[in-house]
Amino acid sequence: MGSKSAHAHVITRSHETLLKHRLCCFVDLVLAMVFLSFFLCLLLMAVSENDAAERIQVFVIPHSHMDVGWVYTVQESMHAYASNVYSSVVEELSRVKSRKFIAVEQEFFRLWWVNVATDWHQKQVRQLLNEGRLEFIIGGQVMHDEAVTDVDDAILQLSEGHGFLYETFGVRPRFGWHVDPFGASATTPVLFALAGFDAHLISRIDYDLKDDMQKNKKLQFVWRGSPSLKEKQEIFTHTMDQFSYCTPSHLPFSNRSGFYWNGVALFPDPPKDGIYPNMSLPVTKETVELYAQTMVDNIKQRAQWFRTSHVLWPWGCDKQFFNASVQFMNMDVLMNYINTHSDKYGVAVQYATLQDYFQTVHQTNLSWDVRGNQDFLPYSTEPFQAWTGFYGSRNVLKGVARRASSLLYAAESLFTRYRISYPDGPVQREWALDKLKALRWAVSEVQHHDGITGTESPKVADMYMEHLMQGMMGAEELLAAIFLLPQTLEPSNDIHHTPLTRSTRVKSDSGNVLEQHIIVYNPLAWNISTYINISVAYALAVVLDDDGKAVPAQIQQSMESSTVYDLFFVVELGGLQYRKYIVQFPQSHCDTGSACGATHVARVVKFTKKNVSQWKRTGRKLLPVLNECYKLMFDQETNLLHSITDRCEKMRVRVQQDFWEYEANGDVHSGPISDNYIFTANGSAIPAYKSVAMEIVAGKVVSEIRQYFYREEEDKNHTYSVVTRVPVGFEGGLACFRLEQSYKVGPLEMNRETVFRTCTSLKNNRTLFTDNNGYQMMKRTYKTFVNNTIARNYYPMVRAAYIQDDSSRVVFLGERAHGVASLSQGQLEVMLHRRLWNNQEWNLGYNLTLNDSSVVRPVLWMMLGSPSALSSIYQQEALELQHRPVVMPIDQPQKPWNQGEKFSGPFVQPVVVPQNLHMQTLSIPGWNYSPDHTQHLHSLNSGGERKSEIDFDRILLRITHLYEEGEDPVLSQPTVINLKEVMRGIGEVTKVQERSLTGTWNISDLQRWSWKTNESVRKEERIDFFSGTTQDFSVTIYPKEIRTFFIYFK
């Protein structure tokens, strides 16, 4: 997306100053008429040379920033320019040996490699990679966003790209290049270190912080992103200066952009005559010296901001190098001219890859400052440009992206189980892998920094949604095939998979019964006890498990429709286990003394609608709703929540929840605006309602409080609603501690940004805790700014956010990303939806105004208790929300199956890891490379284009430790598990090999660069990664480690 801040907004003061300075210098140098000006210029040059004290070595890094989405769809971009980038770059690098190029996002490259590249192109790519002149940077499917992506999805998209690159070329990226994500998370450098990277590069950080870092030469540092992993997973990080990743485009001698000789990409079709808009003046005898002076001035300015005499000079920008011939042809001449006059200019320039630059900096052997686990969020480009709006933009897309990720997680582990147990089963393995690959691609693609952020145009949002929905349909087909197709007669592991032969039907009290069969799968490697909810068309139902026993259930009128009922029932499932349930619908009277007695028929009690203008003495008429963990009190004067009591710890907290709105400005001539990216609070939020109605459903599985908020007193239809579900009967279980809140928000009025605000009696001093990508929690202290204080105190919440004081903590967990803030004492607000329009020319031109008229239905789980009690469970609760049981009805209500028709299948043994560990990945990647690097390279070199067989026996397993050091006295301890024992429920493990995060390195082969720091001297021999596994497959996992293995079964 990168050029937004340059084209869309007022140029920052520092940029204005720069442009004026460069224009003046040019006039002075050309005219050379005013002695004083000439003297000052000489003085500036002398100071610059003294600072450098040596010739500046310039690394010109050719690149093209290629957004996988944003304004144009992937298909449109491939046609208009992306294919031409790779074709023409490969051709031009092959012509001249000194030329180099870095390739970043893999999606476009993979599409080009498979669909466009000729045999010659493919051969040349391999040659250029061997020569080190073409370098893959990051290597992920996309350049993922860092604020609203979940850690699992960031790892997935990185693994997808790395797997392709290693399988196809035997190369493994070593450097990050996160030049465009809107702020930088402390999780990303940890992931890149775990993947084997030697250095990382970022760009978009707060404008005032970047100014300060430039002045003090602090743009480079060693980043220890995890407070638990510390120096084990540190990484050298380079922050780009104020010019970011684009070549400075202003030329004092031309009204065209500079250094972009191929011009600007044209959509929808490339011009037939090859003449593009805004092509830079060619480098000729007349212009070469002017170009050289402009480039050298910029190089020297940049050199002042770094500690070494090496300058990284990115040459490129968005959608560049679609005509690499004209680009290199001009730059070759310019660089040759500068080098010929190197003594005059004091610089030497060369084409370079990122490895060339970082290797040179590493060899200086300087000591670097250490940055701890602070992130660079939120991000602002100016006082009124806080890029915190995108945390809540396109809430529907954010929800679907995470739901698709969760479905993929379930389908991967289920297919892995099936493949190990039934290698010759009827579910064709290549067909299954294709279904999984399609969903992997879609989930990876949407992690792009203009994808899940919600900052793309409507047609691109539609593209992401289409790819996600198609992928999800394919995964559901795979699940249905696994569940429904008959298994082989002789399963390979018959000890663990004994087919059930007993019938699971029970006789009903009435012969007139309909039945529906449902399979429920728990994708987590923990035993769970929870409830699920399905919609049914009948007022009475009985639920039987696979032992034929009636399970506790509850049925009630749905709030959505008078002809639909909500059926809740309790499910108890082992880790990675699925069970079969029969739902019976008696069509006549059912005796409560029979199985029907297990189902509670809950009644809806309606309360009088209350107008805010008529509220009088609140807090006097309180109505309790209880479960074994909490007592919620609702105020009948307001129909709002009044307080929550933690019944275990006898602790009461005042709590009120309601909807508020920020009114955004849409006229750029009237003041700062909000848009896809930016949140600018045009004053404080105002209550979004004038009347509240309430219904309460007292249940035996779940009690439900339904609150309806009306914009005006006389409105017949509500604008907002929230349903709070209080689980009942789960004493001692995790489900007892969660209060599920489902919201219905929209369509909004134009230029409204809606928040759900929770006001409590906690004394948190406006301090908030939010997660970095679901991996670690960050403390967010309230800051006051001259302008835009509200927006600059918003932070992304991916899985969790909480406020606390000495005695109490209130936690919110989410199944999609939101923006959150604590703007007053004891307050936490979550931005749920945004609808915006503005008349800014740039936004209108690209259709980026976020006129989102959708209805959004996010879910949050709220928890309350002491900090110590909640710190031991919220991580597990967050994952149970993200990966709720997969519910698959396999038929419609119909007459009962005959006694001979068995609703059975393999008995599935549970797979369980300890509470402080999480099985993050269990999948069959389908890679065909040898895990032995030497053997794989030999195969590539000798076989050429020959493809080896897909390895269906290699299982990718990731296990992560959920806790920080010192977070919990018990759960923060290192944990020893035996992988053979843990996986026994699936089969017999015969071989384990530990790998890097994305699987491409054998851990024993991986040696990352060590960078000297200004902190206490460490041992020369340090452990970069982990201690590996023992001969009996035991492994010790330390706090916050993510361990990756290839495992093989008998």
From TrEMBL:
SMART domains: Alpha-mann_mid. It comes from Cyprinus carpio carpio. Its EC number is 3.2.1.-. Belongs to the glycosyl hydrolase 38 family. The lineage of its organism: Eukaryota, Metazoa, Chordata, Craniata, Vertebrata. Keywords: Glycosidase, Hydrolase, Membrane, Metal-binding, Transmembrane, Transmembrane helix, Zinc. Binds 1 zinc ion per subunit. Residues 385-468 form the Glycoside hydrolase family 38 central domain. Its cofactor is Zn(2+). The keyword Metal-binding applies. The chain crosses the membrane at residues 23-47. This is Alpha-mannosidase. GO terms for biological process: mannose metabolic process. It is an enzyme of class 3 (hydrolase). GO terms for cellular component: lysosome. GO terms for molecular function: alpha-mannosidase activity; carbohydrate binding; metal ion binding.
